[in-house]
Amino acid sequence: MKKMMIMAFLAIQVASVCAQQTDLYYAGVKNDTLAVVYKNNELLYANFEEESWYCGAIDLTITPDGDVYYAGNGNRCAYIWKNGERQFSCGYRSVIKGICYDEGSLYSVGYIHFEEEYLRKGAIWKDYALWDTLGTSIAYFNDIDFMDGHRYILGTNHGENLTIWKDNEPLYMLGKSWEGAGLRTIICHDGHVYACGGLRTNIGPFSYDGMVWKDGEVLYNYGSYACIRDFCIDGEDIYACGEINVENQEQKAMVWKNGEVLYEYDYSQFVELYTILKVGEDLYFGGAGYYFGKQTDEMLNSSYGVLFKNGETIEIDPDCTTIHALAVSSAPLALQEMEKVSWEVYPNPAKYNVVINNIEPAEVQVYNALGQLVKTVRESNEIDLGGLVDGVYLLRITDKEGNTFSERIVKE
């Protein structure tokens, strides 16, 4: 059905956003057995499944309504919890590696073991039911994202071919991986498909060239013995985290910005970084530190959770063993009124472009419903929304005098 174009003409008090309340969540493991979620560094949820010996939270997502979903894996069973309550188990010999909330539904990806241990099928669950399986008899899925009504999945096919699927068909073949170990993260952003992970090298067993890809092409190659575990996108900048083995096989934890080293932590700290997230001007990343037998009262190779903000350690629950995932939930706070100005943003709803009239923008930032910055446009009155998924967005407009305006729009 053809939809009417709606022009929103505003003659209002200019809204200057004074502050934005951002809640930081992280999920992982506590005391080696609990699946836990923390909110602003306070324990929010903790779960343990009696039939499982290990139930750490491996991924989490927060819906626009504020519901917290997180997933974990136990004794050959995969679980999903919502706001502290278990929703379902995927069943015996199932593994979940990533979850994603889109258009009112929760999607989970991973794999299912068949009767023979080495046979695995890539699996997708939608709202707690098995939705689809893809790949050969040896396939793994690690992450899923959506763009323009299509699903994009990062996984391996035939046990070692690192692949990005679009819906049910392979879209990009990235190269050889070590039986799924090179799987990491996929992000659909501004009309492009990004992914990170590692490709097999001939240097030694389970060695990689750590990489970030854009539309199937190598964007950054971090070199051999690099393990890129996660990345995030902030405007035009790409941040990645992981580890790299240097001389004498000593491992360093690393954070990169646009392919260049931003932070590094030497072998004496023995840190592994699993997750990274940019929140406004702050960069958070976390993972695990390892005692590695250096403390006699600790079990060999036992771990402790680590969380960093802009390169500095944040003190967290000492019983937190590992941090696997980060997320934010944001909402604007009080608006400060200024002089009356007439301005307009149209069309609203919009399918492709919106135009800003009666303001000369120096910068326009586009935030999604989770408070994440998904696009930045400078020195332009026209904003291209074509590469964004349908939903509600917040435009934060800064004019050349430094005044800040905000407007919610609907992309459809």
Structure report:
This protein is mostly beta strands and 412 residues long. The chain has two domains: 8-17 and 335-411, Immunoglobulin-like; 23-331, 7 Propeller (Methylamine Dehydrogenase, Chain H). 0% of the residues lie in helices and 66% in strands. It is built from no helices and 36 strands. It has strands spanning 8-17, 20-30, 34-39, 42-47, 57-62, 68-73, 77-82, 85-92, 94-102, 105-113, 120-126, 129-134, 140-147, 150-157, 161-166, 169-176, 185-189, 192-200, 208-214, 217-224, 226-234, 237-245, 251-257, 260-265, 271-279, 282-290, 303-309, 312-314, 320-332, 335-346, 353-357, 361-367, 373-378, 382-384, 391-399, 404-411. A four-stranded antiparallel sheet has the order 1-30-31-34, with no helix packed on it. A four-stranded antiparallel sheet has the order 4-3-2-29, with no helix packed on it. It is globular, with a radius of gyration of 22 Å. The two termini are 13 Å apart. 40% of the residues are buried. Mean pLDDT is 81; it is low at 1-20, 294-301 and 332-340.
Comma- or semicolon-separated keywords:
2 domains; mainly beta; single chain; four-stranded antiparallel sheet; Immunoglobulin-like; Methylamine Dehydrogenase, Chain H; disordered N terminus; 412 residues; globular
